[in-house]
Design goal:
387 residues, alpha+beta, eight-stranded mixed beta sheet, four-stranded antiparallel beta sheet, 12 strands, 24% strand, globular, binds alpha-D-galactopyranose
Length: 387
Amino acid sequence: MSLESMAERTAELFARCFGHAPRWIVAAPGRVNVIGEHTDYNDGFVLPMAIERYTVIAGDRNDSREVTLHSVTTGETATFNVREPLTRGEPSWSNYVRGVVAGFQQRPIKVPGFDAVIASTVPFGGGLSSSAALEVATATLLEAITGEKLEPIEKALLCQKAEHEFAGVPCGIMDQFTSILARENHALLLDCRSRTTIPVAMTDPSITVLMINTNVRHKLADGEYAKRRSQCQTAASALKVPFLRDASAKALKAGRSKMEPIAFRRARHVISENERTREAAWAIQAADWATVGRLMYASHDSLRDDYEVSCKELDAVVEIARAISKENGLIGCRMTGAGFGGCAVSVVRTEAVPRITHQMDEAYERKTGIQATIFSSRPAAGARVLK
Ligand code: GLA
């Protein structure tokens, strides 16, 4: 579905729910991370792009203290009072909105009561940042409602804090940052320390980015994420650096005896992934796709063996990709996002997309008994006000 027709339908539904047309319609994209996984909270490098999958919110002030949210995806309605201290509540998706409203209030920016209808084409739990898209769409709507525009980085940090405090996930900055600052036809090489970006053009029409959703999400995801974060901090302390971003492969080798084997392997992933990410950005710029593919597979192996955040379904996708091979147009493939299910990302020759989609679909179902969902996307632009 195009963004325009999504916006139209969301506005229609708003009118049906609330009896008048919405004053604003906003959209924020999901993202796929091409490479640079579990590096953002280590102050390192990531290379994501926004995808043409969006969370759209139609909204208006309502002259009350109540916020009323209707989700098209779940059919649920959530309400809360903006004058009372905001806390976590039900339904669980409303926490992303509550967290962002709380962030505005802490600025302090006065948030009035409002009505909203929320629709999304970002698959939930697919590792494509459906939660960041909802946070960023909410923040974009609140900017419109309150007339207070935030600096993009400040806005990303506010949304990240909402995720930390209202969803309990100690995430890095990549997802929110990308949903706000992404550029059409570009991936972004983001330095998570300086929060500066280098846009990397992805305009070559003969190359397509494919998302392969395993359609599984293993329960341990959130707890294991927090554990990885603290293991990285342990390794950094053993190496006497503030973050693993500051450690080299050589320093890690020299410091091996100062840490548990598990911390060593976590650090080896992060340090090598930072190198791969920068190398991949240069390789894309040079249209050196063979190098990009090699780095993507190396990233997956490292996430599977050293970081241990893959799962058998993601490994199955990557094995199938390797078997299809670059001779048949499949350049590279790896798990993307936090892991333990969700999507793999693959870079393929555009002419081979139909054949690869078919082969992947069949082989994945044969191996796992599960139906994958496969779709492509050009790099999309960041969040915007549509009306
Ligand atoms: C999740 C987090 C991000 C990042 C990735 C792993 O998407 O929200 O901040 O840490 O996992 O790279």
